[in-house]
Design a protein that fits this description.
This protein has 337 residues and is an alpha/beta fold. Helices cover 50% and strands 10% of the residues. It is globular. It starts with a helix and ends with a helix.
Length: 337
Amino acid sequence: MSDRKKLDESAITAQMNSKAEDGDFKDALKEDDDEGVTGEFKVTEEELAIIRADLATEFPDDFQYLSDAYILSVASKPYSKDPTKRRPLEYSQEKLTHLMAWRADAGATELEDLVKLANGSPNAPEAVEQPEKLAKAKSIVTSLNYGSMYWHGYTKEGQPVLWVRTNRKPWYPDVDAEVNALILMADAGIRAMPDGITDFVCICESSYPPPPNPTYLINVLKALVRGYPDRLKLLVSAPVSSIVQFVMNLLLPLMPGRLASKLSLLGMDVAKKKVSDMLFHGDDAIPTFYGGELDHDVYYPEEAKCPNRGEGSLKFDYFGMLERMAAFKKEYEESKL
């Protein structure tokens, strides 16, 4: 390792430690005290209805985002002060309200509309009359166009699979746009969940990731903890490059223990076997960049090989991805009949 690289790692580590001292980040971690704890206590239909009504009142435009299965998974958890009892209903309502308030602050509900705006004509009235909104829309679409993350397929248990190709990530990211694109993607995956499923799986190809960006890493971790508690079932990353090891050394001390336990860094041969055992179509669903035969680039090529999808700047096949996931979901659900 060169002295220059050592110097860069020291600087990045110092930046991460500084970002981690942010009060908002510390508050976010405190809210994640029960990540991964399974809810086994009974929640009545009346209690579910009370929670639903409360969310509908406070968040009338977004309350249907949370499925009954997810609400029940939160409300049925043990109480942190006495694990032999179910948490009070008010406590669950507070947790869910915090989640929905985070979504409102993050502008999560408008992100897909922004993609549509950027995919439309730049001369459309909304684009012309709201240049700042159009600029935000274009920045999100720029992040999508890298083709560095997309949903494709399901696990045998019904979790949608988010594929991340770190070699396509930008070296100098627009942090806000990258985080917004991730929120957009996460919500698309959640909408694609079959009935009763509340979490997803992430599979990363991590041969050549860009240098870590401390602001981006902290913001992603904050979003995962605040906006998507108990959504990540497992993250598999392979192969284990020196940069990935460095990033994990930065992140793991900051993560709640149960969240950290969901990360699996593996060699490619071991990862391929693990992923094959997990995916709904087994070996047939392993992509070429994971040593399989399925060519994901047919659907998600590099940006230079993508046509524009409309009159605007969107090249990534976002809406085609949604259609494919709907077809995969139908196939999965019919297999369970």
